[in-house]
């Protein structure tokens, strides 16, 4: 995919994904094995200031990616952060999710590849995911793709080996 591109910088995020800065074609984000293109940011499809990206830096704790271009620096809040071996106290925000909120709900404080299940109070699973590094996100939609109803939702987090778990809750207001 990149054989004709001049690569200026490569950075690896908390989910072991590869961010690749090019001299004329913006930024590519590749899967941990490098075989799948997840995103391709250019000045035409994103707020990227220029397709000539000189360097990439990552604030691993916050998951913020900085792109230095020939026209200035811009940042992007990614869905991956660094992680601990253990699941710490989960941080869920925004919480509560108000009716006018548009965006992703972020769950931080997770271990690498933590399994996430979000249920309503009756125990019905509305969302399944795996964290990217120490962060997982949810768009407040259910299995049918529609926004979930007003209510309290439980977030169950478990490391893939089952050694570490945590539970959180979030209020959604519609």
For this entry, give a set of tags.
single chain; 174 residues; mainly beta; Immunoglobulin-like; 2 domains; 4-stranded antiparallel beta sheet; 14 strands
Please describe what this structure looks like.
By secondary structure, this protein is mostly beta strands. The protein has 2 domains: 7-77, no CATH class; 91-172, Outer membrane usher protein (Immunoglobulin-like, Sandwich), CATH 2.60.40. The protein has strands at residues 7-12, 18-22, 27-30, 37-41, 53-59, 64-69, 72-77, 91-93, 105-108, 115-120, 125-130, 135-138, 151-158, 165-172. The strands form 4 sheets. Strands 1-2-3-4 form a 4-stranded antiparallel sheet, with no helix packed on it. The radius of gyration is 18 Å and the shape is globular.
SSE blueprint:
Layout: E1 7-12, E2 18-22, E3 27-30, E4 37-41, E5 53-59, E6 64-69, E7 72-77, E8 91-93, E9 105-108, E10 115-120, E11 125-130, E12 135-138, E13 151-158, E14 165-172
CATH-scheme architecture of the largest domain: Sandwich
CATH topology grouping of the largest domain: Immunoglobulin-like
CATH class of the largest domain: Mainly Beta
Mean pLDDT: 92
Summed up, the helix count is 0
Q: Low-confidence parts lasting 5 or more residues at pLDDT below 50? A: none
Number of E-type strands: 14
Q: What percent of residues adopt helix (DSSP H or I)?
A: under 10%
Question: How many structural units, i.e. domains?
Answer: 2
Say which CATH homologous superfamily of the largest domain is assigned.
Outer membrane usher protein
Describe the main β-sheet briefly: 4 strands, antiparallel
């Amino acid at each position: 995919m990149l054989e004709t591109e001049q690569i200026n910088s490569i950075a690896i995020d908390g989910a072991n994904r590869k961010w690749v800065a090019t001299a004329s074609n913006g930024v590519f984000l590749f899967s941990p094995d490098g075989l799948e293109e997840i995103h391709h940011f250019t000045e035409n499809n994103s707020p990227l200031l220029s397709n000539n990206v000189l360097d990439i830096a990552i604030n691993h704790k916050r998951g913020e990616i900085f792109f230095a271009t020939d026209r200035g620096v811009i940042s992007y809040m990614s869905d991956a952060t660094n992680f601990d071996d253990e699941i710490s106290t989960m941080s869920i925000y925004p919480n509560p999710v108000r009716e006018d909120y548009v965006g992703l709900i972020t769950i931080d404080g997770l271990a690498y590849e933590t399994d996430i299940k979000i249920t309503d109070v009756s125990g019905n699973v509305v969302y399944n995911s795996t964290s990217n590094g120490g962060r997982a996100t949810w768009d407040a939609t259910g299995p049918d793709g529609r926004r979930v109803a007003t209510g309290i939702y439980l977030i169950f987090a478990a490391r893939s080996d089952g050694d570490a778990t945590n539970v959180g809750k979030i209020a959604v207001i519609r």
